[in-house]
Amino acid sequence: MKKRGHEKHYYLMLLPGMVWLVMFSIVPMFGILMAFQNYNPGAGLLKSEWVGLDNFKYMFQLNDSRTVIVNTFIIAVGKIVFNLLVPLIFAILLNELRSMRYKKLVQTVVYLPHFLSWVIMSTIVIGIFGYYGVVNTVIGMFGYDPKLFMADAGIFRQLVIGTDVWKEFGFNAIIYLAALTGINPNLYEAAAIDGANRWQLIRQVTLPALTTTVVLLGVLSLGNVLNAGFDQVYNLYNPLVYSTGDILDTWVYRLGLQNLQFSLATAAGLFKSAVSFVLIFISYRLAYHYADYTVF
Amino acid sequence: MRRNMATLLSVVLLGLSLTACSGSNEASNNLKASSNPTSDTATNTKSNTETPALSGDDLAFSKFPKPVDVHIGMVVDPTDKTLPEGDSVSNNQYTRYLKEKYNINVIVDWTAATGNDFKQKVSLTIASGKLPDGMVVDDRSFMTKAASSGLLYDITDLFQQYQSSQVKDIMASTEGRAMENASYKGRMVALPNITVDTDGVHVLWIRKDWLDKLKLPVPKTLSDIEKTAKAFIDNKMGGNKTIGIAGPSKNSFPYSTFLVSSNNMGGFDPIFGAMDAYPGYWLDDGNGSVTYGTLTDKTKQTLALLADWYKKGLIDPEVGTRDNVGDPINANQAGIFFGPWWNGGYGNGDSFKNDPTANWQAYPVYSDDNKWNVHMKTTGSTYTVISKNAKPDVVKAILIMNNALVRDEATFDLSVNVGWYPLRNVMAAANETEYEYAELLKVLKGETNPEDYNKPNSLYKLMYADAKKVKNVIKPPFEDLNVSNFSTANFGDFQRLYSIMIGDRPFTTIPIDKKVYSVTYNQTETMETKWANLKKMEDETVLKIILGQASIDSFDKFVKNWKAQGGDEITAEVAGFLKK
Amino acid sequence: MVRNITLGSRTFEIANIILLGLLLIGCLYPLWYTFCVSISDKSAANAGLVTLYPIGFSLSPYKEIMGDPLFFNAFWISIQRTFLGTSVSLLITVLMAFPLSKPNREFKMRNTFMWILVFCMLFNGGLIPWYLTVQNYHLIDSIWALVLAGGVPVFDVILIMNFFRNLPKELNEAAVVDGAGPWSVLFRVYIPCSIPVLAAVTLFLGVYHWNEFFNGLVLMNTSAKYPLQTYIQQLVVNIPVGTNLTPEQYKKLSELSNRTLNSAKVFIAMVPMLIVYPFLQTYFVSGIMLGAVKE
């Protein structure tokens, strides 16, 4: 089949997108240079003083930088894992429902918390886990003393991960639901005729069909490996949980807030991007070599 | 010859206007700034001539021969509905006033809402290096960043020439602190904001109605407060979840610091003061060196006390993690909290709405040897910055706008919120609230008339409006005002007058025994890189000790770490300010 | 779909219904709470007293928000932005996804372009250079800033590209045999077969544009040009007139929260999503016949 003539059409199709990309992503990228400068708004990008890796050195020399990065990593990875698994399981369970109306209802309601900002959700979370909140009331019924959850550094990370999943699983399930509709019903019938029960149906038909989506989302979510969620943490944390809850973004926010430290913020952003890129690249190669699968 | 006549005429007119406008004597006794108003007629005779002989107040209020365009970025309150139909941020009574009187054409380049939005816009503007001619920033670090980047106009000289005598007097009343506040490396780079001293005076707010029901006296010392809080809780005065003492939320702090030295609602400032401790402030040792107040033994003792109170259940169990400072106060769960004058009235309006008998009263907290110790705030926290690229005429225009605001605010029709005045940066007499307290009492008792305060050039711009309403809001008897004396028919008026008459009562009527100023209220060079980390350690340690998550012994470790991680360096730099 | 009606199956179904029901309640609560706070009495809400049901009744925050003509102005701007933004983004995204879904031997530069996109998804110059760039294009204060400044939605490009790649090869071959060029294949074959993922992406893009408030704040100079979310989120607590509060006190007071207003804001902004979603849902729920391939 002669497909050579098609290539110029492919370029044409890519053209508007690439122009858009250049204009709004690539041109501003020159700003990354700020990470290697002591940016002075009066002098501009071209004339600001160059300081090489000083900003990075400064970041990593601070006493709590290791803790902060570890916190960020743990929270972000926790979120990635659970934000992949929970929506998946939910989508599969939802798919098993027979009542169309109930399905639609659940689907609609669970996707709505995504639209609440963390300003509101944090009030709710703090209320639920507060001294006189629901959780402590329930605990009290079993005879235990009330616990100050929001002051407990030991469970803060779990709290952050858990409440984020609560908020986002409905929305994140959408892409799985879309993928599920693409499954040919004949496949189910064929497997059922072969005597498969419900679990086997899920394992043999549903899951494989979702595999590529899961892997894709997984690899792409590595882009967020150091994004623990500024909005959420900022609205939930307090000095008592700094040791486990202070993340890269809140830390840079406090560092930078004092002096509009643009260079520092850019350096932190560059660090995050670089780590993400490396991880994505590695996982892409691994998938290619071991599973013969090109993720994207 | 004609010029001399004109000068003579203006001097005579000035003299006449002085006698006409001198007002009551008590006012001038309380004033920290002079009460010599300038008369409009004097300046009008000079308004159309740009002669080099202009100086002093003539220059300060001179009209430009040709219109001068001033580009500004402006903060707005999006919920404000006081602009009449057809008016806007670029066209309202204030902009028209500036155009007519001074030929100043205000052009609003951009606006943003009060708070984070405005902060965001300002930081972006600074980052892009293209400032509008003028804008008011609400964070000193923005001003210093802009200054260190060479973006600001050095107004040292022009300010000397163009400041009105009123402005000069107000600046002088701060004994150089306002000037230091507005300067960067010795040059004046912004117009400072000067706010009332009382914003930094934190007092005890307590439910007097609860005290009365329990027949308890007003607590004066810390041990009194301890007993009172216990009594409130034991008697469940606020219901089953009664809180003795409300404290900071997850976003606020146990004490104000040298960088944020005022308006700390829900902190523990008076408690520290009563123990003669001044955490967060730089203290002059008296022998050429300084100490950071948080590191002192007295602070350690106060923290131990607070930890003890927390353990006994006297402090809100959710202190430091609570979503919002106001919650237990507005829910009428808490019987005690600490904060400045406006916290009762403005600050806890919902408490009154939820319980109209809530008789919040304000009192000082005394040390065991009966002293009232208070740490005092910096002069102000907002700055009018002018772009380096502004033309000199524009700079002069902005200075004149400031002069005009200070002088004429009292003459404006305040039904249009004065917040619409372009580049409004408050320069108030430091004792404005105390003045109003004293004078409003007189009006109430019939000793003076509201009309007595109808002085267009008065330094106390809201006095007349308040004097007119006070009798509608407050009923006799006027000694020992209680919530029952107040009418809440106009809730806004109620809030304002409650804050003045009850909130400011301590500061006005009781002398402070020890006023402590911080050696500096600004950042030093090393602070730019090391302070955030030190502050984080400080906040963590303090809160952990209070909540009992760390023992009081961890305090010593904190001090050691603090000094090692840049604290000593910074302390030496601050000590450098002493040698000035 | 044939199901086995065994006891195990039955138990599973009931357990499933209950579990999903619990999730339903768990997700409903935050919304219910927000709604209750928004119609409660302001003072009760500000005291943190509202938890399971409204206390008092007041529609004043809604009146305050919607009573301003600027609200409807912002609403209209958001509609324009969402419509323009979603259609432009969707079109370009699909156009990009198609060539990228071709294997390397058919389109040699494919991998290069792909990695450029991934790189751009991860790296960016930061807020300030981006802002300066938009400023230099003279787009500040224009609706096109809102539509375009978010950049190419690379994530969605990859999603659609992946979906295209997994479509049966026979579809493409059949169309090419019939003489169709790449454009026809894309518009007449691939797109109609990709409705679920396109619906999903449309939803994502629409939600993004509708919810996005930060760009609206920094790229527009006055509130007359704000999209809805930007307009709404800037509303702070109402301070009585003539109070002469300093900006600092004002700021502190607004931090003291105005819960009813904040909740009403969230609710109003959420309502369109609530309405739109059920329409898009049909694309996720119904099955799509892939029998377009003639075997």
What are the defining features of this structure?
heterotrimer; A: 296 residues; mainly alpha; MetI-like fold; two-stranded antiparallel ribbon; 14 helices; 1% strand; B: 580 residues; alpha/beta; D-Maltodextrin-Binding Protein, domain 2; 3 domains; five-stranded mixed beta sheet; four-stranded mixed beta sheet; 23 helices; 11% strand; globular
3D architecture notes:
The complex is a heterotrimer of chains A (296), B (580) and C (295). Chain A is mainly alpha-helical and 296 residues long. Chain A contains 14 helices and two strands, in the order αβαβαααααααααααα. Chain A has a domain at 55-118 and 159-291: MetI-like fold, CATH 1.10.3720.10. Helices cover 71% and strands 1% of the residues of chain A. Chain A starts with 5 loop residues before the first helix and ends in a 5-residue tail after the last helix. The mean pLDDT of chain A is 89. With 580 residues, chain B is an alpha/beta fold. In chain B, β4 and β5 (187-188) form a beta hairpin. In chain B, α14 (297-311) packs parallel to α22, α18 packs across α19 (463-473) and α22 packs antiparallel against α23. Chain C folds into two domains: 7-58, no CATH class; 64-291, MetI-like (MetI-like fold), CATH 1.10.3720.10. Chain C is built from 15 helices and no strands. The longest helix of chain C has 33 residues, at 7-39. The chains are: A mainly alpha (296), B alpha/beta (580), C mainly alpha (295). The interface between A and C is large, with 90 and 103 residues.
